[in-house]
Amino acid sequence: MATISLKDVRKDYGRNPVIHGISLDVANREFIVIVGPSGCGKSTLLRMVAGLEEITSGTIEIDERVVNQLEPRERDIAMVFQNYALYPHMTVFENMAYGLKIAGKNRTEIAERVSSAANMLELGPYLTRKPRALSGGQRQRVAMGRALVRDPAAFLFDEPLSNLDAKLRVQMRLEIKALQREVGTTSLYVTHDQVEAMTLADRLVVMNGGRAEQIDTPMNVYLKPASVFVASFIGSPAMNIIEARVAAESRGVVVAGRTIDLDHLRLHLPAVGAPVLFGIRPEHIAVSETEKVDLLLTVSAVETLGADALAHCYFEGGKKGRDFVVRLPGTRTVRVGEHLPVVLDRAATHLFDPESKKRLN
User: pTM value?
Assistant: First the structure.
């Protein structure tokens, strides 16, 4: 087992910086998920840890050993890729055993390690098959088994589930999490899928434009996003973020002409009248059953999801758009054009600076 430490790691391609100084300490046995949109630098960062990309500056340590100049095979890591990277002419057993064979392990040890990994991944009946005779999920298990038999200091996963269908992704997520808990190997996992990120991670690294916008537990990232980007990226559907201003006496904010009293939250708000960005997630909004109404919305579109329904709305007196989303129980009937009086969960509100886009509260 191992720790991984990144200290101000940077990567430039010529004069174009792509990783802007990321520092991260990964504890022994910890499962870290690096999440972000395409092109944010998450796979580049993983490849730098693996030794497949040179770093421009900074330090990478694995188990307190600086590995900047070490070849990938010298770093004691194992990678699992999205395209499986299996040898098509080899059986499952031969694919899983190949790394051990190259490392000079004897036949008995190879057989024991492969058998143990195959049983753990439920691949026992398929050891004599070749990859073409396997499903996508089974091929990904073989790729994981090939990494597992090596007993590395750390696992590096580069979007391993992106080629699987939705049902298989759910199944494989559960298997990867269970496997990591059982073997306890320190892991870095890259994905653009926020559901994977939230369900797998001990901690998340949310990346944007080559920078780590926030490093925290999944629930802290969800409950207290550090920036507008994080708030918009984590959560499905995305957080509602709209322009507002600080209300008189700094007791709250004015949203769509209505004052949302936030005084009891003891926020340190900017000056009266100052612009802010106000955020609240669709699941923290409820249809008012009393005379108390925070916002009056008009429904412009409805997405029926079964257990839930998403009402896309615009503000009273505003333009007919889809600026505000409300998550409703699937049993509640709502129609386009209907007026929706809603109340907001004050404890789940978020304020951001309109210039820096950083969190205020």
Answer: 0.90
